[in-house]
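Entry type: protein chain
Record version: 2
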Amino acid sequence: MKVTYPIIPEKTAMLVVDMQNDFVQEGAPIEVPHARAMVPRLNRLLGVCRTHKIPVIYIHHVLRGGAIDAGRLADHHAAIRNNKALIAGTPNVEIYAGLKPHAGDLVVAKPRYSAFYGTDLEAILRSKGIDTLLISGTVTNVCCDSTARDAFSRDYKVIFLSDGTATRDLPDLGFGPVSAEEIQKVVLTVLAMSFAQVSSIDQVIAKIEQLP
């Protein structure tokens, strides 16, 4: 059964996950080209959220470097292992220029895939009385998915953006290569089945703009 959640501005927050230079900038060490392509439509939604006083919270992945806090991330990602990505104090971890936070937006740094792990995100949401999350960003099947599942387990109502999240092609790791399109389809289907409402940016904008 597909779920549908109301969007009540004072109880809703917009999360923008990992739209930082490391993922979005052309030629970045862990570039996701599809993430850059969705910036214009994501900006449209952010503008509508700000107009309707829905808090916008940027999440970016930041590590100290030098194998101090990378943990198992370094096992899976050479760019992290070699201190080429996600390092605090570098331009790489800054929010992509085309999607910069506005005055009043919040920015939360995280050390792992989920926006909830090792951060004060939940304290912020609880203090604001937030119970519904709009989730956007990259990578769909890793940080966005991890955040959505953690939010679900904390009893937040999750609205996951079908065209406001992006991923990349995966190479053959023993099971055959997987295209970004296939990954997006599967993740959205699984989330819609068990964890979230899945909606397009246009659908969410239309719903917000109908509010009194």
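Comment: The longest helix spans residues 180-194.
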